[in-house]
């Protein structure tokens, strides 16, 4: 009987072990073509040794927290509910900064499970290093290990970048973590401050490329080459903000009497904005804006195009405004702080971002056609052997990236595995 137990239980346990580990690295605001005008030997080498997508399309809204959360949940923004970088309450008028939201579960935990939690519930060990949403609890569950970016965290210290890689490599090699997400705040920061078409942006891309070289070395050094898959991606692109005299900038107070008509707004935050009209003033707000400026599009919540996958969420305010590429949604003043910005329509090439992948389960020298970032989720699940939660992605866009020998048999869900194990034990006890 002991013999039967061991024989039946072994293949069940070892089924899990055939899946390799996964690291997802996100470089915030890495536009799809940033590697084309800067010297990037390591990224170029990776294209030979792994997978490169021509570009990927972030969800609409092309903003950091909403887009990162779509990647880690595989859900459209209207489903996962993280509709902005700022946490806000249109009734109390309270607002919290992007960094302040990071450990506020009530902003992130809206009934949709990010992959960390789903994977943990199926027996995997997961961690988040500064990745948006990693610091929150989901239905009371925390990510096994989560580091949240401090308010004073430097965005571009290359030494610190390398230290973070060393820490993550230690998590994989010494503590047997299965899935880690690692986030860097560049090149977004430089793209905003200096603009995407500057020497400073090319400089930070070179720094990112060095760091990717360091990552590849670190993987070898920790003997993870044959058991760690890596995805390098980002959340949105970046475009140069258009200014006078080249264009007439959009300042909404030129068309809209804020104090009379507007109760609350999320403007002055790139190309996308939301307005909460005062009671009964919705039509007045809409009419004031609908023909105000040729490069401004205004939507009533009920008329937001279905393709945005936005309107369903209660956090979306009654009026949504989107600028043409490079036209920021300014309210009463124009703050000339950002030379570059995002938030614009995800169909614009400047909003597209990167996808690279390498490791034992990925083909080499494989150029993938463009796809939506919502499809990264089922790929991650497949790589980890995790049964996905309900999601809006499809494996059909990415499965061609995997080596032909990859896991031909469908994954046995963890619950089924536990059931087989328990059933076997019960059967053995019965025999005894
Ligand atoms: C928003 O603020 C209002 C007024 O203070 C409060 O009643 C409501 O519960 C808040 N909503 C959320 C989701 O916290
Ligand atoms: C998550 O839950 C733990 C345990 O209940 C709690 O100590 C912690 O403060 C919570 N964190 C957040 C960000 O809500
Ligand atoms: C979030 O972090 C801030 C400071 O970093 C801290 O004051 C606050 O208590 C934390 N909140 C939660 C829910 O952990
Ligand atoms: C960069 O990070 C390293 C390691 O964390 C630290 O020793 C160094 O002081 C930092 N440099 C700057 C300029 O902040
Ligand atoms: C590296 O990993 C491989 C496969 O897991 C193993 O066979 C080998 O012994 C390891 N080498 C070292 C130096 O740890
Ligand atoms: C701004 O609007 C004008 C007039 O419709 C149009 O010709 C121009 O292409 C628009 N600019 C952008 C960046 O879409
Ligand atoms: C996204 O997925 C969820 C969960 O399966 C589903 O309820 C929702 O209808 C999907 N959204 C779209 C636009 O298909
Ligand atoms: Zn971002």
Automatic annotation (TrEMBL):
The keyword rRNA-binding does not apply. The chain crosses the membrane at residues 414-431. The keyword Cell cycle does not apply. SUPFAM superfamilies: Alkaline phosphatase-like (SSF53649). Keywords: Membrane, Transmembrane, Transmembrane helix. It comes from the Eukaryota. InterPro entries: Alkaline_phosphatase_core_sf, Phosphodiest/P_Trfase. It holds the Pfam family Phosphodiest. This is Zgc:153896. It comes from Scleropages formosus.
